[in-house]
Design brief:
It is built from 2 helices and 21 strands. The chain has 3 domains: 52 residues; 141 residues, Immunoglobulin-like, CATH 2.60.40; 121 residues, Immunoglobulin-like, CATH 2.60.40. It is elongated and about 95 Å long. The chain is 16% helix and 35% strand. The structure holds calcium ion (CA) (4 copies).
């Protein structure tokens, strides 16, 4: 090997080390710069975090339905005759930022509607088909206990009209009822949950209690008594009518058949709709379902013929009206 060759080799090695050295310098400089950049960058970023806490949207863990407070769950709601029945919608909800994030009642919304009603959850309120919960008076929020608590219990108590549309049978049998609940937290994060139920058909009737025929001479026809019959359910109805037996008097008795029922005022005693019996008799009275503020009623008329003889004093029996499916 000549000196020149050795020299070349040394120069190459030198160049090689220089290159490595310079790479190391560049690398460590690069690391330094990078670390510095990260350090510089971290400060404003941690400042930002302390101002703008990331929001977690709320979560509805459970949604249950009942017709009693915190009671067994139902899938079939039976309306209450002639008055509002209550549907309870209850369960638990969560917010990782703390349950205070969803403690404002005005951030809770509830729509309950028959599934084919126009507008869905934005339907117009109607006792037949669409209800919107009023959070201020119908919602209770419980068990939200200060810092660190993420979990609360909610309960809605919604009055449903006795004439609410049935979905188990009849015109709306293909529908069901939907419960749609939305909760929005204080940072506008939201969650929506659903549940479903059927409203049962309720056929019910209410009749004024006492029918007084007044004083009657033997063999004479009574004055006509008006009976106001009210449909107190959620379906059109006809009636079954029966007497518990003859009118029992202080002396003797009057056969139930002597009581005649007519549909028009001043009906002919000889041409009644029915003569009363001990067994149920069908009365095609056709009382529609109530659909608004007006109650749905019809009047029927009763007349009594006193026997010619064998009867004396005050006479009594009892008549039962049962609502049946309208035909
Ligand atoms: Ca939140
Ligand atoms: Ca709690
Ligand atoms: Ca149905
Ligand atoms: Ca009828």
């Amino acid at each position: 090997m000549s000196d020149k060759t050795n020299n070349d080799k040394l120069q190459k090695e030198h160049l090689y080390y220089s290159i490595i050295l310079s790479i190391l310098v560049v690398l460590s400089f690069g690391i330094f710069v990078d670390t510095y950049a990260q350090d510089v960058g971290r400060r404003p970023s941690s400042l930002e975090k302390s101002v703008e806490v990331l929001n977690s949207p709320p979560f509805i863990e459970s949604i249950s339905l009942s017709n009693h407070e915190q009671s067994y769950e139902i899938r079939n709601f039976i309306p209450t005759e002639n008055m509002n029945g209550f549907l309870y919608v209850y369960g638990t909800a969560d917010d990782a930022n703390g349950c205070q994030d969803i403690l404002n009642k005005s951030n809770w919304n509830l729509a309950i509607y028959r599934s084919s009603v126009e507008g869905g959850d934005a339907c117009n309120s109607n006792p037949l088909s669409c209800y919107h919960g009023i959070a201020e008076s119908q919602l209770t929020l419980n068990n939200c206990d200060g810092n660190g608590d993420t979990h609360l219990n909610y309960q809605w108590r919604i009055p449903l009209a006795h004439y609410i549309d049935a979905t188990d049978t009849g015109k709306f049998a293909n529908d069901d009822w939907k419960v749609e609940m939305k909760v929005v937290d204080d940072a506008s994060g939201s969650y929506t949950s659903h549940s479903y139920f059927e409203v049962a058909t309720l056929r019910a009737v209410s009749v004024v209690d006492d029918i007084e025929y007044g004083s009657l001479g033997a063999g004479s026809e009574s004055i006509e008594k008006k009976l106001l019959i009210t449909n107190t359910g959620n379906d059109p109805i006809d009636l079954n009518v029966r007497a518990d037996g003859p009118m029992i008097c202080e002396k003797g008795e009057i056969p139930a058949e002597n009581i005649h029922v007519g549909f028009v005022e001043g009906f002919d005693y000889g041409k009644p709709e029915i003569a009363m019996k001990k067994e149920d008799q069908y009365l095609n009275v056709s009382i529609p379902k109530r659909i608004g503020n007006e109650v749905s009623q019809k009047t029927i008329y009763l007349k009594l013929l006193a026997p010619v003889n064998g009867v004396h004093g005050r006479c009594m029996n009892s008549i039962t009206f049962t609502a049946v499916q309208d035909k």
